[in-house]
Design a protein that fits this description.
This protein is α+β, with helices and mostly antiparallel strands and 277 residues long. The chain is built from ten helices and eight strands. Helix content is 46%, strand content 19%. The chain starts with 5 loop residues before the first helix and ends with a strand.
Amino acid sequence: MWNYTEKVYDHFKNPRNVGEIENPDGVGEVGSIVCGDALKLTIRVDKTTDTIKDAKFKTFGCASAIASSSALTEMVKGKKLDDAAKITNQQIADYLGGLPGEKMHCSVMGMEALEAAIKNYRGGKAEKVIIGSGERVVCKCFSVTEGAILKAIKINSLKTVEEVTNFTKAGGGCGQCKGEIEKILKDYWAAAEHKSFASMTVVEKIKTIEKVLAEEVNPKLKADGGWIELVDIDGNKVKLRFLGMCAGCPSSSATLKNVVEKELKDRIDPALEIVAE
């Protein structure tokens, strides 16, 4: 059984603002009954103050989905549109006192429905706004796009495929997309690190390089009885030393190029120059 907070139970058993606003100013629909969770959010906007006067929801889903939707409507009423648009899924979860990790996708659904409703209002469109329409679909089981995955990674600092599944449901069906999700994660964090590497202090650069060596490189080398350590950093030049069975190994040059250099450049900065003493 999921470990729900009392506030989640309260919003599930006594949901606020259930229903649909007649002739709403904005409508946001996300999810699919076929996929297990669906949410329709309608909002009424005071056009003179640009404030959300009222919000109602209809949700098909589990206790977390209902509670998250109920909480969202309470959070947005009385807020300026610009402030409401900044609400994140984590804030929805925090409002409820937290959600089980496996149920965080319910708070994401709320955030996306709000985003769609505001976009619908500001665009002056009567038709349904579909978040992510036209984007490449990564998870066909739950129709999760690459953009939705990247957004969840960025907002919530997700690091594993399991976390992405918890927040987006991507990979939670047949599982065939898990390899692609892992690549998206790796590429995102590599790019994020690339952007900040030039501004790192020497200590930060050392810690970053040693982290990649410890987590990505040495586990591979230790399978053959060896490992590698950081010796020095000079600008973009990184000097390393092979140890154990790797020291003096005839294949060390190939290992340096195909394993060590590849991981460091992929994870940190493609401009790095990797040398071994």
